[in-house]
Amino acid sequence: MRKILMIFGTRPEAIKMAPLYWEFKKYQEDFDVKVCVTAQHRQMLDQVLNFFNIKPDYDLNLMRNNQSLFNITSDSIVELEKVYDDFNPHIVLVQGDTTTSFTSALSAYYKKIKVAHIEAGLRSGNKYSPFPEEINRVLVGHIADYHFAPTEKAKQNLYNEGIRENVWVVGNTVIDALFLGLRILEENEELRSKIELYFNGIFEFQREKIILVTGHRRESFGEGFENICNALKEIAESYPELKIIYPVHLNPNVREPVNRILNGIKNIFLLEPLEYPYLIWLMSKSFLILTDSGGIQEEAPSLGKPVLVMREVTERVEGIEAGTASLVGIKKENIVKAVQSLIENTSEYHKMARAINPYGDGLSSKRIVEIIRSI
Ligand code: UD1
Ligand code: UDP
Q1: Which end of the chain is more exposed for a tag (fewer CB within 10 A), N or C?
Q2: Is 182 domain-assigned?
Q3: Would the keyword Isomerase be found if you checked this record's keyword annotation (predicted)?
Q4: pLDDT, tens only, 28-85
Q5: Is 107 in contact with 83 (CB distance < 8 Å)?
Q6: Residue 20: which domain range?
């Protein structure tokens, strides 16, 4: 019986680990699987744990208000040692590029525990964007023993850095989570009605055009967020019939400019972070999505929704190459122009609004568990 420890800390890691957790649970005779949350996020993590019905075995409860990279890095390393000593896992599973993934991999290495990296090999090529995630992911890649790359391109990135063994292309588990979420929405009429009722007060989803907005990247704090908010303000004023729905990330560096610049504009709706089924329902009803989120860039193409990526570079290039996503940067005029052109040019809109699945087919967790069983 192998002991597997899944470690995660933030909303997107939890979403992407959830289907994998339940896949491992199907093989109780092979694996003793435990979950450790650093709780780098608290409320936003708990929303996901709750929806996917995951009860952590270890909860480090680390989040502090407006925490720094230094706090979260040092606190998690110190606390994780105790968890490893208690459980003695054979393999630690980490996901993505957060500080939690980096410190979990590093501290597992200090204990000579094998590390499996889910969503390995994405690269923007710019060490300050996404910051600090680009370097976190590179470092985890060089620490890890097993690499689960979502796409061929990610595998190639690893190959180029000399990581050539134990690399498998399995798709991204975010699509497993998305398909699972969509299935629940389809089957659970009560939940669907609750969600429709909630949004009914905001927009008429049969008729009105909405733009979904999310944003939280550290490299955009300050001037970048001011630009993004001023762009949204101008778009809202130019198109009063349009509704902009923005579930605002809990990071105070995001909330301050967003609330200051956008509060009180009548066709902009600033919401608290949405529970996952609410968010995917809203994505499916959106006209287009403006975001800097990694996960949303991956989910939106499966739903046929155009994504304007408010970043200067992205490590998710597959959507851009397929033409369903476009990098618009964080300058006000460029964001406004890109939105205008999708609203006013129908053929351009339809070129982008195509359902494709460059990031996965919903079977990534199955593949990962099969491979780990065979190792
Ligand atoms: C983190 C990850 C980022 C990921 C993002 C997903 C790092 C360095 N950053 O960024 O890669 O894309 O999560 O959302 O690992 N907060 C709350 N409640 C919550 C969550 C956050 O109040 O549930 C506030 C707290 O004040 C916290 C702050 O947000 O200190 C920042 O959280 P942190 O995890 O450090 O950074 P994110 O910007 O969320
Ligand atoms: N998400 C959510 N509620 C929200 C905003 C996002 O459930 O209000 C989901 C989204 O569907 C995606 C993930 O959270 O799966 C993305 O998280 P985030 O943008 O915080 O982080 P990133 O993916 O950029 O690391």
Answers
A1: N
A2: no
A3: yes
A4: 999 999 999 999 999 999 999 999 999 999 999 999 999 999 999 999 999 999 999 9
A5: no
A6: 2-172+361-374
Task: Tell me the pLDDT band of 373, cut-offs 50, 70 and 90.
Answer: very high
- Tell me, yes or no, whether 334 and 366 share the same domain: no
User: Active site includes 59?
Assistant: no
| Helices marked H in the chain | 11-24, 43-51, 69-87, 99-110, 133-143, 152-160, 173-187, 189-200, 223-238, 252-262, 276-285, 294-299, 318-322, 332-344, 346-352, 364-374
Atom of ligand 1 nearest to the CA of 133: 11
Quick one: 157 and 48 in the same domain? yes
Task: Write down the pLDDT at residue 206.
Answer: 80
Report yes or no on 181 lying in a domain.
Answer: no
pTM for the model: 0.98
Q: Which of 98, 131, 220, 225 to mutate to test the pocket of ligand 1 (most atoms within 8 A of CB)?
A: 98
Nearest CA to ligand 2 atom 2: 276
CATH number at residue 44: 3.40.50.2000
Residue 120 — left, alpha, or beta (φ > 0 → left; ψ -120 to 50 → alpha)?
beta
Based on the fold, state whether residues 25 and 56 are members of the same structural domain. Answer: yes
Q: Is 124 in the pocket of ligand 1 (CB under 6 A)?
A: no
Mean of pLDDT values over 185-204? 95
- pLDDT for res 201: 87
- Domains in the chain: how many in total? 2
Residue 375 in tokens: 């190792």
The minimum-distance atom of ligand 2 relative to the CA of 283 is 11
For residue range 239-258, what is the model confidence (pLDDT) as tens digits?
999 999 999 999 999 999 99
In a domain, 183, yes or no: no
Mutate to test the pocket of ligand 1, among 63, 217, 309 (most ligand atoms within 8 A of CB): 63
Would the CB of 295 count as within 6 Å of ligand 1? no
Percent of the chain surpassing pLDDT 90: 98
